Amino acid sequence: MPSRAARRSPGFTQSDVASWAHSGTGLYEGKPKVEDLRLIATLFPETLHIVARADAGIKSVADLKGKRVSIDEPGSGTIVDARIVLEAYGLSEKDIEAEYLKPGPSGEKMRDGGLDAYFFVGGFPAGAITEIASSMNITLVPVTGPEAEKILGQYTFFSKNTVPAETYKGVGATETLSVAAQLVTNAKQPEDLVYNITKSLYAEETQKALAAGHAKGKAITIENAVTSAGIPFHPGAEKYFREVGALK
User: Fold this and answer.
1) In CATH, what number is assigned to the domain containing residue 128?
2) Is 70 left (phi over 0), alpha (psi -120 to 50) or beta?
3) What is the pLDDT of residues 48-78, one digit of tens each?
4) Rounded distance, CA 45 to CA 15, Å?
5) N- or C-end of the chain: fewer Cβ atoms within 10 A?
6) Domain that holds residue 189
């Protein structure tokens, strides 16, 4: 969730959580809106994984009906995303044997035969999924078609995403959706300060360091910066992105 620090200075969150905080929906239903939350930049995708046992016969989200599925803990961002996806395919928690486990315990239970599938939102390759794929046959369930288009049209914090083939052992390329890791701040922060932070993030030397430091660092690009917004840009960030042509 957007940290208290993000209300005063830059902080990290996911695009879905930021959108809910700003609008008072989702995880923030019934709570005060964080109306001063502003986007500096979208950083990289946090991919929606639906991990399933390869022998469970789950080829689409619709096939989750009647299956034992973990949708993460109450209060998590993943559980709200899971409900959105299920609803788009005409399902609810009542149509599955829902479990409410974190990804680690979900993977362990699936390995032991007590679970057919589970939802996980995070960057790939996810270490826990890589570990499971090395010890059992798994598949990733695609989130595609008119149902996915409906989600994309309704929720601006989602984007299309593809998990490349063999990201996880034996799993082919899988089309799905993603939310985004974001750098956010408070609307009251000075425009010049946020402009300079944004400009520094996309300076040539910073970009080289990010690309060399981690696989996801390569995704922190100008092109990705203005996707999956979900909340308004801070004027300082908007000014920079308009100068470089990323925003029109």
Assistant:
1) 3.40.190.10
2) beta
3) 999 999 999 999 999 999 999 999 999 888 9
4) 10
5) C
6) 5-13+21-42+183-243
